[in-house]
Sequence to fold (461 residues):
Amino acid sequence: MHHALWQSVLGEIELSVSHATFTTWFKNTELVDQNESGIVIAVPNIFAKKQFEVKFNDQIKGVLAKNGITPKHITYTITTTGKKTRINRETTISQESQTPESLLPSSNQNVQSTYTQNAPLVGAGGLNPRYTFDNFIVGSSNDLAYTASQAVAANPGVKYNPLYLYGGVGLGKTHLMQAVGNEIVKLQPGTRVVYISSETFVNEFLDYVRFKKKGFSDKYRNIDVLIVDDMQFIAGKEQTQEQFFHTFNFLHQNNKQIIISSDKPPKSIPTLTERLRSRFEMGMTIDVQMPDFETRCAILSAKAALSGVELGQDTVEYLATNIKTNIRELEGALNQLLAYAEMRGIAPDVSTAEGLLGNIRHSRPQHITSKQIIERTAKHFQLKVEEVCSAKRDKHIVVPRQIAMYLLRSELHLSFPKIAGELGRKDHTTAIHSVEKIEKAIKLDFLIREQVASIREKLYA
Ligand code: ADP
Ligand code: MG
Fold:
């Protein structure tokens, strides 16, 4: 009974999401319980759980409702069968030297078209159809930005205006903003959406000045949604900022949606004029952080699936463990691995990845250590390492200690007893509580979010 219902739900969902999304997330799911308080769906791993909770929940609810079922709650639980392989490089290398058929790309043609295509077509308004919500993976590093972007796409000009996204390179800002644009055009054809980089804005303005053209201030007034990427390039250019200020005000007063990205929050761009800064702060300002381990794994699996390749869990974890900087690099390494394996007719497995990544890794910062994490955290809070590792319960020490534990978990993937040990604790339940506490705090407390992001950034700088 459960089975039939879920099959029909899946059948419907399969029609509305991309093939890769379906195989990556929905294929190995099951409806395991249905009772008064709701239904329980089993998903294969922790990152699938996250995608379901944040991304697919509404969709599933919708399809269930169509089937006459309106559960109070939908719970996602991780399947216990098919145990997740932990990273164990020493053993995996020797075991993986064979080339299992199943790991090879199923159809070469298929593969080629996706991962060798780096210069996709850009359509009208500067939108690139490659960037959609569908192929954006949600994790704790970007869920706020994702949720706000979706809200904006559903109701442009209404709720978060302007929407201001900030964060380091390669973390998905452009992808998200483009996804908003694409979604709006899809939902409301005819909406005039313009995506430009702030550099383009600057150059166009300079052209007008140089050639004494008139009417620049009208150029961007005739649109419904203005997306300006990498705002930091406008900062410092006073006349351009002045122009942008007028454009901004005009659109904003007319309830047109504005979306901006930058590498920093408005308050940290010193050359941004006060007027613009306060405008930007009127709406919603959200950071996009470095993806955590789970998100990196999820992105790798999903991107491989897009290329028609099913990567082994150990390969995914190997790449996610070794590439922590940003998503662009993660994608780059994956594409390299797939292309290399295809060329040689071998499986894109851990040993192949190791061979390739060996080269990549030499040129990147050393692997960080527990010691560095603790030192960095202590330094950030102007504490001594001994204080962070002490048993003191003062609040100004407890929170940094919890953050250090959190980072030991998120960056090095240490076990809880090990984390406790690194901070001079005997009881590992403290470590569990601390990590959980910071995980939660990051969602609710912008200060903590920024502190963690800043420590992390310095660790890899
Ligand atoms: P930014 O604008 O922050 O520098 P981009 O949006 O250009 O970063 O992202 C870099 C690459 O990583 C792009 O190819 C993008 O599609 C991909 N990417 C980033 N975040 C995600 C995500 N959450 N899920 C899937 N792909 C992502
Ligand atoms: Mg960008």
Q: What stands out?
A: The first helix runs from residue 2 to 16.
